[in-house]
Design a protein that fits this description.
The protein has 245 residues and is α+β, with helices and mostly antiparallel strands. The protein contains eight helices and seven strands; from the N terminus they run αββββαβααββαααα. β6 and β7 form a beta hairpin. α1 runs parallel beside α5, α2 crosses α4 and α3 crosses α5.
């Protein structure tokens, strides 16, 4: 498998893993993998659900927004991925979904607390939030502002819209998106029952982040999502090199 073939394969697997985790929204939402030859990003073509992505439904979109491989026009929100990945050269993957728990939680304007292990991913500080617009990120300038909002955090909320996540590996980016939604969902459940009074303070949250979410744990979660998203009627057709850093 060449480096480009591996990047394409990971774009397919990441899309399916996000769908398996419940982050699908019909044909909306996408994940982008950096092209190893520096040409841009591999991303699903518009019109397909995350669970429907396969190799022949991918596009290679340049950092100028031009489709270099694949058919059709690029996603309107390609600037999310193009600018997030342009801002930090070490990032290999970015994710944007309309995860329901994330959207619901962001509407409350409530700080994300370390109620659970997942909440500790942000070290006891509130998750970054992109508040400039709840509309589409359809141009480079908004994409750059979104990239500045996420900074070096694993993910950010986009109130009235969804979430964005990134990672130094494809597995890390997918897991950051999944863990953010789980943290939002857990706190929503707690708030529905009453006032949240028990959660990790910043010091404990930082310690838990180091213990619970080192790279190898993120990759272990990624492997689980790959197994979960595999067709139960066929042997999985992914191999170690599909998800290892």
């Amino acid at each position: 498998m060449t480096a480009v073939e591996r990047a394409r394969r990971q774009a397919v697997l990441a899309s399916r893993a996000l769908a398996a985790s419940g982050q699908g929204d019909m044909i909306w939402g996408h994940v982008a993998v950096r092209d190893p030859e520096g040409r841009g990003i591999w991303i699903k073509a518009p019109g397909w659900g995350l669970e429907e992505v396969r190799d022949d439904r991918l596009q290679l979109v340049s950092f100028d927004g031009e489709v270099l491989a694949g058919s059709g026009k690029p996603h309107k929100e390609c600037p999310i991925h193009l600018e997030v990945l342009s801002a930090r050269s070490e990032l290999q993957c970015s994710v944007h979904t309309h995860a329901r728990a994330a959207v619901a939680f962001a509407s409350l304007g409530t700080p994300l607390l370390a109620v659970s292990h997942e909440g500790a991913l942000f070290g006891g500080g509130d998750v970054p939030r992109f508040r400039e617009t709840g509309s589409l990120i359809a141009g480079p300038e908004l994409g750059r502002r979104l990239a500045a909002t996420i900074g070096d955090a694993p993910a950010a909320l986009m109130p009235k819209h969804g979430l964005v996540a990134a990672g130094i590996t494809v597995g890390a980016a997918v897991m950051h998106a999944v863990l953010l939604e789980q943290a939002c969902r857990t706190q929503l459940d707690a708030m529905a029952a009453g006032h949240v009074t028990v959660h990790s303070d910043p010091a404990e949250a930082v310690a838990k982040r180091a213990l619970c979410w080192p790279q190898h744990q993120l990759e272990a979660g990624w492997r689980y999502l790959l197994r979960k998203s595999a067709d139960v009627n066929e042997p999985p057709n992914w191999k170690d090199e599909d998800y290892l850093p």
